[in-house]
# Entry
Amino acid sequence: MQIKIALKDALIAKQAEPQIQKLAKATEGVEAMFLKDLLGIMRKSVLKTDKPMPGSDIYYDMLDQALSENMAKKGSLGISKMMMETMKPAILQAEAEKFAAAAKAETMKAVQRAKATVNTAVRDLVDEAEKAVGVPIKISTSGR
# Structure
């Protein structure tokens, strides 16, 4: 039983992997945006003694962007990790529900096939019995 559960969980995780990767990229982006804003605010708080060079704002913005992306990839603040831990279970739950619905649909199809097979077998047996005794046999098809 434990093996079946582990296999089911592995299958669900495998099916959820593309969504989890997208979520990881998005949460990393959120952390990078936060860090870029933080670096920009910190940079503005520094007293400037010299007259800024032309284009230095663009240079510092690009520097802040590169630093924030690098820091976010390393998970410097842990914002991405925290968001992943919060949102990943919802993705896995949604995939588990899809898996359960698909399993239920397959089970229902199997039950219908089994019913059809049993009904055919019963009908064949009744036909043979009618031939053997020479009298029509009435059977109930109420399902119970």
Remarks:
- The chain has a mean pLDDT of 87.
- The helical segments are 2-45, 56-73, 79-133.
- The chain has three helices and no strands.
- The radius of gyration is 32 Å.
